Amino acid sequence: QVQLQESGPGLVKPSETLSLTCTVSGGSISSYYWSWIRQPPGKGLEWIGFIYSSGSVNYNPSLKSRLTISIDTSKNQFSLKLTSVTAADTAMYYCARDSGDSSGYYSYWGLGTLVTVSS
Amino acid sequence: QSVLTQPPSLSGAPGQRVTISCTGSSSNIGAGFDVHWYQQLPGTAPKLLIFRNANRPSGVPDRFSGSKSGTSASLAISGLQAEDEADYYCQSYDSSSLSGSYVFGTGTKVTVL
Q: What is the pLDDT of residue A48?
């Protein structure tokens, strides 16, 4: 069974860079789309972006200027970097894997990691 | 803000049927892109409930059903049970930006009375 686990600092200072890693176990990272999705406290889900195992990416237009998603297939990991963070970036961050058939739905999710932006 | 609109909240008594709408536009649902639905229980990650408009993953009760028509989609829960109290989100693809992007609905909180 595929499992995803987010890791990274739970507290980031304003204007600094938020960095998270998702480690995939129980399956290969190849031939799938890997996404980041976030949820501010008490609010709805927001799609951040995805990376394919080949390295091609697609980002949420509202985050594109601050966002980098990368992948390390040798470690079965993919990562997110979000620069110049503000309190508005405080959220639960989830990593997720798509279905594998380009339908765009998420069959597997990590448990999520809460990131708070505060000085 | 999200381009897919859902009612903020719905409620029903045990055994009743509730229907959650997901209203989009010609750049997402109306363009023919599939709609998927997720259930999020309190304090947990979302769980896939319906994929490609009307399909249930294995293990999801047949009380849950999905449909799509025009620029909208719906999730119906029949025979409402206490364990169905959760937040529900629709998801689709939107082609209005240069490279397109996935989008989630605004979310609906279902309360079992």
A: 97
